[in-house]
Amino acid sequence: MTAFHVMAGGNEAFVRPVVRKIGISDIVDAMKLGLDDFSEKPSHYVFLCLMYPIAGIFLAMWSSGANLLPLLFPLMSGFALLGPLAALGLYEISRRRELGLDSSWQHALEVRHSPALPSIIAVGIMLVALFIGWLIVAHALYGAFFGDTVPPSISSLISDTMTTPQGLAMMLWGNLAGFIFAVIVLATTVVTFPLLLDRDVGAVAAIDASIRATLTNPIPVALWGLIVAVGLVVGTIPIFAGLAVVMPILGHSTWHLYRKLIVAPQQQQ
Known about the structure:
The protein is an all-alpha fold. It has helices spanning 24-40, 46-62, 72-78, 83-86, 88-98, 117-146, 154-163, 165-189, 192-198, 203-216, 218-235, 243-261.
């Protein structure tokens, strides 16, 4: 049975993985390797890739009711905050392919047997909390500029947001708040989940490694965040279907980015 250890790794020791300084070329190479993983057996990833767009469509439909319309765009954009968690199975497939193991899609579910599962769950809860926090902030901003007024339709919501002074101000502050949430998620999870799958170091040590990797490589990590953001936006066209291709490529690339950012134990000698 998996031991419940989150603060430290399986041996109860707090280990700080060594962070490597990388360049822009490493980001490009990670993307190429991620594309190779996806191209190897793309049919095996259909099951995993469809979960994300289906969830996105569900959220969009759920928010289409009149009372929830103001949360439509925060939900669509904020759902990206859960991306690192949604791509867990993709990291596992890349890990298995790297080791020369069977990388069929069903092995993505092997994550549930990981000794680091408690730590993975803990970080997942953190992401869900940030997602909920973003929705609360977005709802508060809408209330601050539009009060209790609820738009009768999506077209009305878009018109109010794009053509009125209060709508433009709300967009400005909303984008700023969204950027802050996105930076927090990027800095705390850029290598966290792949590291936990690879080494059971504990949630705190994994997040610490991710933050140190970000601070050591601000420009490459910022570029990676931009690539992810643009990819997810493009993937939502049409009707989130593009995420079925974008998500696996980004997921596999994240694994290879982790390999470039974190020095393997055997390489530390």
